[in-house]
Amino acid sequence: MMNRFLDSDFFHDFLRAPVALISFCVVLILVLSAVFAQFIAPTNPFDPASLELMNGFTPPLEANMFTGEIFLLGTDDQGRDLFSAILYGLRISLFVGLMAVTLAMVLGVMLGLIAGYVGGWLDNLIMRLADIQMTFPSILIAMLIFGIARGLLPPELRYEMAITVLIISIGLSEWVPFARTVRGSTMVEKEKEYVAAARLIGLNRWQIMIRHILPNVLGPVLVIATITFALAIIAEATLSFLGVGAPPTEPSLGTLIRVGQDYLFSGEWWILLFPAVTLLALALAVNLLGDWLRDTLNPRLK
Amino acid sequence: MSFVVAKGLTRNYDLSEPLIVRALTMRPKRILTAVDNVNFSIEKGTTYALVGESGSGKSTIAKMAVGLLKPSAGTLIMDGKNLNDPALARNEQLALRRRIQMVFQSPYASLNPRWRVGDIIAEPIKAFGLIDGTKAQFMRVSELLEQVGLASSDANKYPHEFSGGQRQRISIARALSSQPEVIVCDEPTSALDVSVQAQVLNLLKALQKEYALTYLFITHDLAVVSTMANKIGVLNKGKLVEEQSPTGLFSRPQQDYTKMLLNSAPSINFG
Q1: For position B30, which CATH number holds?
Q2: In terms of domains, do B166 and B201 share one?
Q3: Are B208 and B156 within one domain?
Q4: Which residues of chain A approach chain B closer than 8 Å at the C-beta?
Q5: A201 lies in some domain
Q6: In the list A34, B73, B154, B251, which could disulfide-bond B10, CB 3.0-4.6 Å?
Q7: Which of A193, A196, A201 is opposite residue B124, by nearest beta carbon?
Q8: Share of chain A above pLDDT 90, in %
């Protein structure tokens, strides 16, 4: 299995594409450092007891004027070590992005399969819904869903549920591209004779959709998932930047950028810069990887 | 009574514009009759061939025979049972469907590319609950593969690892796996090259002899017809215009349309 992968065209192309290689390495480093944050980070930024207010606004690699402590990337207004905060924030950004994409993918693929296979009024209903949603910017949809969900939740749950609500609102705002692609490929696949053969032995719609058609329409979905993953990370950061995402007690990259933005013009540039550069590197690398995947897996571009 | 009987078989397609457009333009409904009052009967263990040019309705008849399409009018009767009886319960319908299977035209589109050949052939066995136990099912799949001239080890391969002719053999093995009595062959050789065509036709003939299979053979290739069929029906624009034995059809075609069809077949004259 491994040997077959190392021998494949896909792997060969990958080694010859510097952009893909570098992007992959960037994503890998960021993901690994987020996963192993508790072993790498010198402090736990989510633990309020470990914060020392006197450490606030320490510039990178300079000794704090009261405590004499030195921080690699400096500290924020609360005296939180920025390097640790970025690693833990990255973890939240990646987790939210991954879960949101999974939700969008499952929802979009199922709706696309049903619309494409069943057709008729159901197809019309689902695709018109998708069209309507496409006319709004997805960040607006996410904010709308976020607002409604927050309004429905009792106040004491708002902070606890913030991440879940964030995932649902981003997931629901990104299902359309999955549904459109899957619907198109399903309409092509359902006319093929292997589907007729499955109908001949009395399989029902669900069995045909899940067992026969689904495996044949998943190829493009993985490409869309990669690109949507980058969009979801940015959407999370945007929502958190606007103050409606991850709570300040568990800051994601977007929350850190929002905090940093307040101090940019008073000279504390590092609070904004480092989280922003991390977010940029992550989103750019995932996006470039997605673009490369799309081009490589599309036989017409070869 | 014959084993398979088609009585007044008709299929219409509604090609009309939407109701609102018709109301505005005052145009009438447009109905296309793809199959028009077709009657034929097939004796058990014989081959009935339907020939005709593209659009003559022969594939529509094949689809109605296996239940992929419902007839607009008329009935199809197999072994005394109406295949499209709306009063039939779902399990009775399933039991009837098991007995009439199909081999498709395209050896490329008729096998799911993501499934192993063994799973493709085992699927009807599982769907109809014919054999219990994975091991017994596996044995049956091996047996079927050998019967159609493939190796039992081919069960672990994917369809793209086979040639067109081999894929058509897999398709035949799948059709056989539910132990049918009637097989509808929808142009099973038209996508194959000539040398492979003969092999597949010989396989179908051998299987017919062994299991007393009844074939409804859809084709536009008259050379195929002459080797396979016991009786030939000629379709033109959805109507059955002539019915003959192969010798009769080739020596004394009755209809102008049949003569045209015979003359349009390419032949090679040496000398």
Answers
A1: 3.40.50.300
A2: no
A3: no
A4: 192-194, 196-203, 212, 215-216
A5: no
A6: B73
A7: A201
A8: 37
Q: What is the pLDDT of residue B250?
A: 81
Instruction: Provide the chain B residues 94-113 that lie in CB contact (below 8 A) with chain A.
Output: 94, 97-98, 101-102, 104-106, 109-113
Please indicate, yes or no, whether residues B88 and B197 belong to a single structural domain of this protein. Answer: yes
Going by pLDDT thresholds of 50, 70 and 90, the confidence category of residue B29 is: confident
Domain boundary among B145, B179, B213: B179
Same structural domain for residues B191 and B92?
Answer: yes
When CB atoms are compared, the residue of A196, A201, A216 closest to B104 is A196
Specify the residue for token string 């097989």: B183
Residue A195 lies in a domain: no
- Count: domains in chain A: 1
What strands lie across the sheet with B239-244, from one edge to the other?
A: B100-103, B182-186, B214-219, B47-51, B231-236, B239-244
Judge whether residue B163 has pLDDT over 80. yes
pLDDT above 80: residue B178: yes
From A55-59, A212-216, B178-182, B222-226, the region with the lowest mean pLDDT:
A55-59
In a shared domain, residues B92 and B191: yes
At A244 the pLDDT is: 80
Number of domains in chain B: 2
Distance from CA of A193 to the nearest CA of B (A): 4
Transcribe A65-102 into DSSP letters.
TTT--B-SS-B-TT--BHHHHHHHHHHHHHHHHHHHHH
